[in-house]
Amino acid sequence: MFRTALVSAVSLALAVPASAQWTLAWSDEFDGTSIDTGVWEHMLGDGSAYGNPGWGNNELQIYTSDAANSYVQDGSLHIVAIKSGSNYTSARLRTQGSVDIQYGRIEARMKLPTGQGIWPAFWMLPTNSPYGGWAASGEIDIMESINDANRVYGTIHYGDYWPNNASTGGSYGGGIDYSAGFHVMAIEWEPDQIRWYMDGIQYASVNSSTWWSVAAPGNPRAPFDTPFHMLLNIAVGGDWPGYPDGSTQFPQTLEVDYVRVYQAGTGAEGLQNGGFESGLGWWSGFGNSIPNIYQVQLFPYEGASHAKLFGQFISGANDCGLYQNVDAAPGEEWTASVYAAHESSDAIEGSNKGFLSLLFHDAFGNQLADHPIDTLDSSSPTDVYQPFSVTATAPPGTARAQIVLGFHQGASSPRAGAIYYDAATLTAAPTACGAADLTTQGAGTGDPGYGVPDGQVTASDLNYFVNAYVVGDASIADITTQGAGSGDPGYGVPDGSVTAADLQYYVNLWVAGCP
Length: 515
Hints:
CATH topology of the largest domain: Jelly Rolls
Number of domains: 3
């Protein structure tokens, strides 16, 4: 079923801060019975109608809108490459004019086709090509795979017009057969950086200092500073993969569980995907040469999925894990919690163990405090989830709270055992005086207590809010929906704008004082 948080013709132009958290803005979950042709347009033929015969790569397929080549069934979009004699047909879908995106997180959960000469892709092209022909207006390849589906590629194309164009990116294998199951392929696209992820593992990034456009020499963000649209297709043959041979089996299917587009936030919405139902989305991974971090459906605490972590296949101590940040403020009391388990069939051995940590960072990413605890070890009971939590107060200067879920392999420990994590949370306790307590009495701009709740509601709090209201600082002053009154669904719900309704709502809180 097609869903959107905006309108049917979606244009997403998003201001993206560094280390952004993400809020769902649009998705197609493909849980209906047909392709939504108001969103996905079929491109047809061999490319000649678009001035691009062979689709620019000497490809063999003819794209069609036939139901045999593309359809929705069992909650997924299916794109199918078919051989008929010496001819090949497939499908190529795009969202140009219906879902155009400038910045954000764009992801799809997919199971890939495989075989010599098979070339599936999830990618983006500029909607209006303001810098001219390819590749001066850019191309973003979120995921490409060729032939045996054992590696995925993420690439940007930019610079001069073909054949003087340039490209940069990376790839990830991980010993995975991407045709054997579903995996989440994503980019996070910011004005000055694009990052590529596979199941939450970042495997490549490119900064704006690298890309450029011959048509905009004075613009360091060109060509990736304009709206792009999404494409999904399977090509057959071409300059890069080569051509099918006797080993290639047909038909071949690209199966897409969903496509989702997220807009940027700052973490104010709290921890996301704590149950790992959306792959490893929102989480970042760390580890050594093999970051053994996966979303699996083996033994969940709740829902259908959970995270699995285990040590590196090397001797010596090593750690791997997942982390996520949310907005925080000095003086707040935060609790990080998670359920953890290990199974008897893959029990933790030796000095291996899991760990949970609650950290605080300032606005520049500097660590201010770390509060770690151990979770499971070799003495922990198997085949049962146990709860773990750690609580701490955010120190002065805090801008972010961070939860870390980890696995530690001891220096001389057996390379055995895995830990499961599920139902993670990262929450702040309400301040003693509720939302009206914003700052320390008497503190002015630049003082350590400015913006730090102090357990009382005074004139300083009102002055602090009014200052934020006057400058339109939505991170502080956007606290209700314009026009909403007491009892309305939007009362007390931020709406993305700072209006007189926000001031009135705060004054009501301030007058009420401490509960």
